Amino acid sequence: MAAVFSGDTLFSGGPGATGRSFSDFPTILESISGRLGALPADTVVYTGHGDTTTIGDEIVHYDDWVARGH
């Protein structure tokens, strides 16, 4: 089983911290789609805060996050 430590990039339920000079929403989304989204769906995500999740459980919501804008 693969695992990744996402820090504040991806939480269970959505993108992580944004609104800072080093973590704006477009950058976070790029990291999620380009790097994390390339990982196998069963990869366990250890988030910076809160519950663990998997890439597969989160990436299915990516288009919703983009449409929502946050």
The helix fraction, in percent, is 25-40%
Number of domains: 1
Order of helix and strand elements from N to C terminus: EEEHEEHH
Oligomer: single chain
Number-wise, the strands total: 5
Stretches where pLDDT falls below 50 for ≥5 residues? Answer: none
Which strand order spans the largest sheet, edge to edge or round the barrel?
Answer: 1-4-5
Describe the structure.
This protein is an alpha+beta fold and 70 residues long. It has one domain. The chain is 31% helix and 21% strand. It contains 3 helices and 5 strands, in the order E-E-E-H-E-E-H-H. A hairpin with a 5-residue loop joins strand 4 and strand 5. The mean pLDDT is 93.
Topology of this protein?
Elements: E1 3-7, E2 10-11, E3 14-15, H1 25-34, E4 44-47, E5 53-54, H2 55-59, H3 62-68
Parallel strand pairs: 1-4
Antiparallel strand pairs: 2-3, 4-5
How would you summarize this macromolecular structure in one to three sentences?
The chain has 70 residues and is α+β, with helices and mostly antiparallel strands. Helix content is 31%, strand content 21%.
